Design the sequence.
DNA sequence: GGATTAATTCAATTGAGTTGGTTTAAGTGA
DNA sequence: TCACTTAAACCAACTCAATTGAATTAATCC
């Protein structure tokens, strides 16, 4: 993640009036984003700010284009409130998924709606070539008509791990030429706007936190089926990256004694069985196609190879879910990634009954396991959510 | 933990001048606590507050007895700074470990030093009896001469899980009569000061965060050998409890296929092998004594039963350490609890070489695994650290 | 149409940090 | 010894942003 070049202060910094205002702006914006159209005094009640303070901040945010008036609501008595909502056209964020062979770009507005989408083949994954192609893709995506002009930031998802020098770790899948590069700096230079670099699972989790199942959860996990298997962790509403940015490395957990050999040097690693890549391998061996659309069709046709993979993966993943629940006690666990929605649903179904864990409680509102809302653009959309989180989310 | 009766606001609250001051007071206090004696302008540099703001806050904190002047430091040129340090006698916190058969009470001053310690047998673990005994123990402990008068709060460690109704979960070890009780409220009523209730592992982690190996780590784990095996998790400097307060339930991870039966209904659970209780069981079967002191002696004598347990436990725990590192990417993992220091050290040693994980990096400063600093009073001392964290730690 | 109710704004106040200048307590060096 | 330098700390005026209490506005109720 190229974060923490010097470990951050071990103690918080002091505050002042300006920081208070900045914090309160975020609080107001986030409150409106989450609760939909609200009047000024609704906001005041929710944030525990005074009506006057909210009034000032709302005026400011509306003038800057982040909030928009939505007219008066009809109420029983008294002056009806003027509702405000986030102005979708108040700005955009970009999300990019940089894979070994292609770059996927999305533009998302402040309402979280997809406004543009592109994919380009990447022939040369070296940093200069990626810089050039990414810049061109972003420029071309922004050239479409009717898009908000303001670009608030760009999130980039790419194979990690990054940053930590001398990382001789498990599952090093970094792109050629990017091993000792400050990816965020390289991409910021290329794109000309603030860039946040993240791994696919964490980005997906952030996307889910802003727009999906995680909207109402402060603590949850996202199990991401990509080339490998990744775990995105949200703690107190914010992504958890660990002391060195490598948290959530779940793919190399040993689940089969003496199982298949893995690139990490071990055997029986989880992601050698339960990952998009493992499925593709299996389909390939059986002479079947491996594109997402083809997999979706295979699932419709109840293909036995695919069904077998689902059953096997579910059998391996079930205990892992229980383990995650016991360790993190998440409000929910979201499944998603580079697999068709129907296959994710089948996996969720095949994992029942889930093992006993602290998550097994009477009267749960949220399901222990659910599919993510954002579909196959999950990673890119999650990437687009990163700058928004940076900009809107106040510290709790 | 009897927290979150209503899930807290999903968005932060607004700030104002008073909250800013409260935050800055914490920042100053915590900075001095961590860095030892500091002059006002040192504090200003570290906190990024102005010297004037620091001066005002320091004056206030000194008047309240939290900080004390330590005289002028000798410097090269210019007016030498007046150093301030945390005033040990500025207040105390109490820590209580309530077990099925006894209550251990400690009093700790603001410097983290143990000032009083008591243990009393508990014949009746029902809430009223515990209330009466705990109140008497706290009163008697405070009666000693020369103790600071001010009691800032009390942390209580007791067998969980609490709070969540209908919890039909793994390893329910709650005391008889406490199943559907708001433990924090009961103990607050009994002790007449703010009470934080926590499980042993999390309390130990907080103690380590304030005074031990976790002082310089924002993210780390504490593996606690108690009756069972607990995991305390510190994230961004604060204890992580999960969405429902049950995070860190590591003891029932299956590590031996078809292994020993466990109270949770499963087989081969980790804590049936690697826990103080499992060791006691094993020693008992061999006709050996099971008190901590006796275990320490057995270890000195290189007793083969104990040595066998250490080897076996280390074999089971090693992969678990690797798993935790891959999931949490902690700065370090601390081992501690109800075992003699020498045995913890032997366990750490027996786990080498640790498995490959993201924590295996060149140039580590902190060890991947280390013994906790607080010895066999770990749980009670950790409990005493809880109110201090509540009071001193600013949000990052 | 006046009374009631609730949202919002206006104007004055307050709390807290910042700014710029001043004082204080040392060491330096002629 | 005494003016000079340096850095810490303080003083007083200022500014920012939230709060407070009163006034205004826009609806419904009767």
Sequence:
């Amino acid at each position: 993640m190229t974060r923490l070049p010097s470990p951050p202060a071990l103690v918080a910094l002091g505050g002042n009036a300006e920081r208070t205002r900045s914090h309160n702006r975020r609080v107001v914006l986030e409150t409106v984003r989450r609760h939909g159209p609200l009047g000024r005094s609704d906001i005041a009640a929710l944030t525990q700010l005074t009506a006057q303070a909210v009034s000032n901040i709302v005026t400011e945010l509306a003038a800057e284009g982040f909030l928009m008036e939505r007219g008066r609501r009809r109420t029983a008595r008294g002056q009806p409130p003027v509702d405000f909502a986030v102005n979708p056209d108040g700005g955009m964020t970009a999300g990019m998924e940089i894979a070994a062979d292609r770059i996927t770009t999305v533009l998302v507005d402040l309402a979280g709606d997809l406004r543009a989408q592109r994919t380009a083949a990447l022939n040369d994954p070296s940093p200069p070539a990626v810089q050039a192609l990414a810049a061109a893709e972003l420029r071309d995506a922004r050239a479409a008509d009717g898009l908000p002009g303001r670009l608030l930031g760009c999130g980039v998802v790419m194979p990690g791990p990054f940053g930590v020098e001398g990382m001789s770790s498990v599952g090093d899948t970094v792109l050629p030429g990017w091993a000792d590069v400050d990816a965020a700096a390289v991409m910021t230079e290329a794109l000309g706007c603030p860039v946040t670099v993240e791994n696919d699972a964490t980005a997906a989790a952030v996307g889910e936190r802003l727009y999906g199942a995680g909207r109402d959860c402060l603590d949850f996990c996202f199990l991401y089926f990509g080339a490998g298997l990744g775990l995105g962790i949200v703690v107190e509403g914010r992504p958890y990256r660990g002391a060195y940015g490598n948290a959530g490395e779940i793919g190399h957990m040993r689940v089969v004694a003496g199982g298949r050999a893995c690139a990490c040097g071990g055997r029986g690693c989880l992601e050698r069985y339960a990952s998009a890549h493992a499925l593709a391998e299996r389909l390939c061996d059986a002479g079947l196609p491996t594109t997402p659309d083809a997999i979706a069709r295979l699932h419709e046709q109840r293909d036995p190879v695919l069904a077998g993979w689902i059953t096997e993966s579910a059998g391996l993943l079930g205990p892992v879910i229980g383990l995650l629940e016991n360790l993190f006690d998440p409000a929910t666990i979201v499944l998603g990634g580079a697999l068709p929605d129907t296959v994710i649903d089948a996996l969720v179904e095949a994992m029942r009954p889930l093992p006993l864990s602290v998550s097994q409680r009477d009267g749960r509102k949220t399901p222990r396991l659910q599919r993510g809302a954002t579909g196959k653009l999950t990673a890119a959309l999650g990437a687009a959510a990163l700058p928004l989180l940076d900009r809107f989310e106040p510290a709790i």
Observations:
- Chain A touches chain B through 80 residues (CB under 8 Å).
- The domain at 17-73 of chain A is CATH 1.10.10 (Arc Repressor Mutant, subunit A).
- The first strand of chain A starts at residue 38 and ends at 39.
- Chain A has eleven helices and 13 strands.
